[in-house]
Amino acid sequence: MNRTDSMPFEDHFSMSSGDLQKILNIALSQGGNFSEIFLEYRVYSSINMEEDIIKETSENILLGAGIRVVYGDQTGYGYTNDLSLEKVTRAALTASSIAKGPPSQKSLPFRSAPVIPNYYPILHPAQDESLENKISLVKATYQSAFKFDRKIKKVKVSFTDQTRYITIANSKGQNLSDVQPLAKMTCLCIAEKANKREAGFSGGGGRVGLEYFAKDLTPEKIGEEAAQEATSLLEAIQPPAGEMPVVLSPGHSGVLIHEAVGHLLEADFIRKKTSIFWNKMGQRVGSEQIFIYDDPTIPFFRGSYNIDDEGTVPKKKPLVEGGKLVGLLQDRLSARLMNKPLTGHGRRQDYTCIPVPRMSNTYIAEGEYDPEEIIKSVNKGFYADKFQGGQVEDSGKFTFSVSSGFLIENGKLTAPVKQATLIGTNIDILQKIDKVGSDLTFGLQTGTCGKEGQAAPVTDGCPTLKVAKMTVGGFK
Amino acid sequence: MAVAESLVTFGQSQGTDEIEVSIMDGLEFSVDVRLGKIESLVEAGSRYLGLRVIKDNKTAYATSSDLNTDTLKRLVKNAIRRAELSNTDECAGLPIPKSGAIDIPNLNIYDPEISELDTDKKITLALETERIALSDKRITNSHGASFETKEINSVLANSHGFVHEYKETFCSLSVGIQAGDTDSKVEDYWSCTERHFRTLDPPEKVGKKAVARTVRQLNPRKIKTQVVPVIFEPTMTTWLLGFLFACISGVAVYQKLSFISDKLGEKIGNEHITVYDDGQLPGKLGTRPYDSEGVPTQKTSVIERGTLKNFLCNTYAAKKLNLPSTGNADGASVGPNNFFLQPGDKSPEDIIQKTDKGLILIRTIGHGLNPVTGDISRGAFGLWVENGEIAYPVSEITIAGNLGTILNQIEEKGNDLEFRSAICGPTVKIRELTIAGK
Asked: Of B75, B201, B373, B384, which sits 20 to 30 A from A120 (CA to CA)?
């Protein structure tokens, strides 16, 4: 793909470099430190299968431009899905109204775009593939789930893929583009036995082509995993309640790091002093074994990108090292107000949204404990295996919804357990992580994170972790 | 309206059996302020189109924000071609319009005043709300306050001759704040959303409510794991009803994704449980003349004194379940109109006073809702009640239960139902739930 040309998408946007310059200057016509135009053309499609039939398919187009003017710490924003020069100009004038005065600067001429690495060198973009081929992948997933066990009564499979073309031009002379592919297959199964009914879920994808589903994660595996979870939950007991040692499974438990640490190191929450971490940079907040990174440059991952939605080239960012807070996730506004370097974490859902600091692929690095030994070290506790999701507040209080897990008795995983909630405060839990496993794994490539109403694709990961004591919400 | 109609005609000329086109024009304004200054100001107009074609009982969808005629024609042609690749589905199809007038003005969901509001006035409302909240000394930080408006014009046309459009408006005022020191912070927010500007709560009311909700959580205690009566505040009842809605949605029911999918006509709750969905209540947030497929909205009795009377359906789910459509279509799925639990006659204070020992549930966080089983497990914040009085706030607890059980254990209902969102309910008291803590 031709990512580094300064204007590879004129077909979609029909705006020349000259037009972009004109818009950027109109945006600065009432003053302001910075103006930016974000152009987006996204084609996405979906296939749904349930009740043994391909129920429907869809094709979708998202086209639009968002214009931003920053004046001190204030942002004016206008957007339009009509890319006529007249409408885009009007959006620029709307954005300019945040500033009130004479123009103080002109937009700089565009520099040639730097050569940047491509983190999604895919062979067969799903968008170019025939619908028939994609339908056969969906059917393979569907059938493998049904074949897995007679107790599987209902299966739902969906495949979605998109290609997102973005161009970002700003008054600092940047003019960059990227083409971001994204594909995802998900499978939901319902298993029934006597009067019990349980659901299981699996899926995968990323910034991948269809070859991923041939070699990395096959449709058969996705179907079987979902069916396996649903059938094993039929035998599951209700979770225990109270404080106890908790072992977190590798991969899926990464959501804990995303929620308990990642969000609270997004620079906007630090700058506004709403995050519990705002006055703790450089301080020890957790066990020495903990090293946390956010890395948008992992090839083919769902949370990766060649440039962020403000045109910044991203790098792997250390957040916690040896239990100490060492870094933040910055967008352009927070970095300038805090006088810190950009990290490439300014993301937005689409052209209607103002970018904010966001995570990409967030993980705890591996430690030295053998995962088997970690489980063996627990006499009586809870093993959290798969999660529905999590949520955190700025105060550091968080919850995680565990969809399936196990009891740990005498160092062994015993009865399967369903639907538990883990709750705690982040610094407390970070200090109580007393064993970090050697088995770093990433969770399903299906995650979407929400912040201020904006959705962004993310991935998270971790090795097996042991928390000395945590509140498990259950019944007994 | 002309674009939608001409695209319907084009689809028919291309050989589709049925076609439906919807167009939404929106005008959005929002201002976020924080610590007395504008943080961001957004103003924009946008237009989206959605279409569905059905040929030989096979369905395909498309959406676009590119309203270029050539693009739209291409999408229609592609959709007809893609429909071939779906499987035959006997239940696929558009609703046949019923005769009878569609009354739009009396629904009172459009306020012309909203488009005329002065920008400075809108900014002042947000600033004033935050100022009032921050004027309380216990409030230590602000997430900011916002004032937002939306004006939407919706057009719907289909090949059965349905062509209608209606306008609606929304405005909302909100503020989020923190109290306490960095390491023992508590936070909450309050907001008011209305169809009409004149009925919107003033900054004074929104700001003070946010303060009261936040400071009552200061200095929380942890409590022991136990089983106790739990009083749900209206916002929490609303949350519970949102989960109930997911379980009585016709789509979840025919897909067997609901624990009550085979319980129609049966007792699923006690005599306190009467739930309606009503799309015709004048001026309310969930009110609309017809649903996204053009089926007129109505008042549907969902649960009557504990008996499950109706599932809420779009045309497809209705055919699947052999039930009538209830005017709840929302795109390809099902959405609430005004979905509410019939209130009782007790004041919330009265309900608290009669509780010896228990928890008032004020907030939950996390996911932990499973419609397939009805299981509920969430992180929770609450106020501990002893001898009929609020004793202290509690945090770091979870609540666990099952919706099926809860519907049978609601023993008191408040008289405080307010239509603050499309789904809403009054204060309720539940006989017992498990709370996990220390």
From this structure: B75
Question: Is A136 in the same domain as A279?
Answer: no
Say whether pTM exceeds 0.80: yes
Domain encompassing residue A186: 10-233
- Are B85 and A131 inside 8 Å of each other by CB? yes
Nearest residue of B to residue A155 by CA position? B255
Domain match, B287 and B382 both? no
**Residue B109 structure tokens:** 């969901």
- Of A174, A27, A18, nearest in space to A104 by CA: A27
The segments of chain B whose pLDDT lies below 50 read none
Taking an 8 Å cut-off on Cβ atoms, the answer to whether B396 and A471 are in contact is yes
From A204, A233, A262, give the residue that closes a domain. Answer: A233
Same domain assignment for residues B185 and B297: no
C-beta atoms of A94 and B43 within 8 A: yes
Structure-token pair, residue B84 = 């071939």
Q: Are residues B318 and B364 in the same domain?
A: no
Domain contains A90 = yes
Assign residue B186 the CATH number of its domain. 3.30.2290.10
The amino acid present at B35, given as its one-letter code, is L
Closest to A445 measured CA to CA, from A345, A317, A304: A304
Q: Which among A50, A274, A390 has CB closest to B143?
A: A274
Structure confidence at residue A3 (pLDDT): 33
Cβ of A241 and B434 within 8 Å? Answer: yes
* Residue A9 confidence (pLDDT): 53
Measure in Å the smallest separation between the Cα of B106 and chain A Cα atoms: 32
Query: B349 with B336, same domain?
Result: no
Q: Which domain holds residue B273?
A: 245-341
In angstroms, rounded to a whole number, what is the distance separating the alpha carbons of residues A460 and A286?
19
- Determine, for residues B259 and A132 on separate chains, whether the beta-carbon distance falls below 8 Å: no
**Nearest-Cα residue of chain A relative to residue B55:** A56
Is A61 in the same domain as A171? yes
| Structure letter (DSSP) for residue A329 | B
Task: Look at residues B295, B319, B341 and tell me which one is the last residue of a structural domain.
Answer: B341
B36 and B58: one domain? Answer: yes
Most A CBs within 10 Å: which of B33, B262, B367, as the mutation test of the A interface? B367
Do residue B368 and residue A471 have CB atoms under 8 angstroms apart?
no
Domain end among B321, B341, B361: B341
A residues 74-113 closer than 8 Å to B (CB) = 74-82, 91, 94, 97-98
Q: Is A135 on the interface with B (CB under 8 A)?
A: yes
- Cβ(B339)–Cβ(B333) below 8 Å: no
Chain A CB contacts of B119 under 8 Å are 97
**End-to-end alpha carbon distance in chain A:** 56
Look-up of token digits 């497990």: B377
B68/B179 same-domain check: yes
Q: Which helix (H) or strand (E) holds B62?
A: strand B58-64
The total number of structural domains in chain A stands at 2
Q: Longest Cα pair distance anywhere in chain A, in angstroms?
A: 75
Residue B220 lies in a domain: no
pLDDT at res. A390: 82
Partner residue opposite B185 with nearest CB, options A50, A153, A395: A395
Q: What's the number of domains chain B is made of? A: 3
Is position A5 within any domain? no
In A, residues 228-267, which contact B (CB 8 Å cutoff)? 238-239, 241-243
pLDDT tens digit string along B182-235? 778 899 999 999 999 999 999 999 999 999 999 999 999 989 999 999 999 999
- pLDDT for A77 equals 97
| Interface touch B67/A424, C-beta < 8 Å | no
CA–CA distance, A194 with B1 (Å, rounded to integer):
53
Residues A229 and A96 in one domain: yes
Tens of pLDDT, residue by residue over A302-321, are 999 999 999 999 999 999 99
Interface of A with B in 152-211 (CB under 8 A): 153-154, 156, 188, 190, 197-199
Mean pLDDT by 10 residues, chain A (476 residues): 39 85 96 96 96 95 96 95 94 93 90 92 90 96 97 96 96 95 96 91 95 93 96 93 94 90 95 93 95 98 98 97 97 96 97 97 97 97 90 83 94 93 89 96 92 95 96 80
Percent composition of chain A: helix, strand, coil (DSSP 3-state, to 5):
20, 40, 40
